[in-house]
TrEMBL record:
Name under which the protein is recorded: Succinylglutamate desuccinylase/aspartoacylase
Cofactor(s) annotated in UniProt: Zn(2+)
InterPro entries: AstE_AspA_cat (IPR055438), N-alpha-Ac-DABA-like (IPR043795), N-alpha-Ac-DABA_deacetylase (IPR053138)
Native source organism of the sequence: Haloferax prahovense (strain DSM 18310 / JCM 13924 / TL6)
Gene3D superfamilies for this protein: Zn peptidases (3.40.630.10)
Amino acid sequence: MTTQQISVGGRTINAGKKRTFRFACSETYHGDALEIPVTVINGTSSGPCVFLTAAVHGDELNGVKIIQEVAAHYEPEDLRGALVCLHVLNVPGFLAQQRYVPIYDEDLNRSFPGDPRSTMAKRLANTIYEEFITKCDFGLDFHTSTRNRTTMYHVRADMRDPDVERLARAFGTSVILDGEGSHGTLRRVACRNGIPTVTVEMGRAHRFQTAHLDRALHCVASVLAEHEVLPDQPVSWPGWTRVVARGGEKRWLRAETAGLVEMNWGPHPLVEEGEPLFTISDHFKEDVEVVRAPSTGLVVGVLESAVAYLGHPLCHFVSIDESTAEIIRDDIERGVFDIYREGGFQWPEPRWYAKHEHDANAEHTGDVFGYD
Ligand SMILES: [Zn+2]
């Protein structure tokens, strides 16, 4: 037992207590308070203070549901240490269901550690950082891909830092992208200030994806087990782990032709060298670009837009070796990746929409399309 208190967001929470409250982080031009929903669960035994954050991009919702479930699930008697759950960081973006802070489209996750005398996003970042993040020992920041894209379940972490590496591996995803993160991201700033933080990426914006959520709840428990916040729980091992080094091994494949996009890859993220991934064509199917896999690899992030302009990112591609590919093929057999194309679709073999021969006598009849 301990009498350890936690002070966050202007409140003090005693050991053995669970508190929910709304923290006024800013206000609208209409004069209403903008409030972050907060849950603090302070364990009956002392230990690390862990933050969990979601929706720093306002339309990335899987993490919001994860935090709702974590906050409801754990009680003080379960924990050695404390959980500080910030259910939504970018409150104005969440209300508008958009990525950035309205109206000037500032990116809250490029605004840390913030500035109390600067823009709204920097003030908001500063308040969050000072009132909550600096009070914690390490944390998890939940994201999804941005709209019109999907991303494989993975962690981004600065693997040069042993404490960050421990956190990333304990979370138990198969793919870890090594890197410090962009300037102004919550995790980069927190890590530089000695608060190990990883970004968790999964799926799509604007929805709850239950298979990702189930997995993430186990991964949160695994992190808590590794750091002895949940001393009796097991630490998860994903079966295989691929740490993608900074530079070189991952790249964006971009459109070199502007036009309409057909997705040819899938339904799983593992693709073989030379496999067609996307076909981009003009309206007349005269200018056609087939984008192929440069090697055997993983489609870690993918555009789900139907159109592309020149240079448009089509997919985030990671090369893998044959032994890893073999393990992934086994995972595919076991259905591990069945969710990946949820909500997306793959173009089947060409039917009526194959490029038509130019035939002056051809007559286009309504039944070519099979529907009105
Ligand atoms: Zn994000």
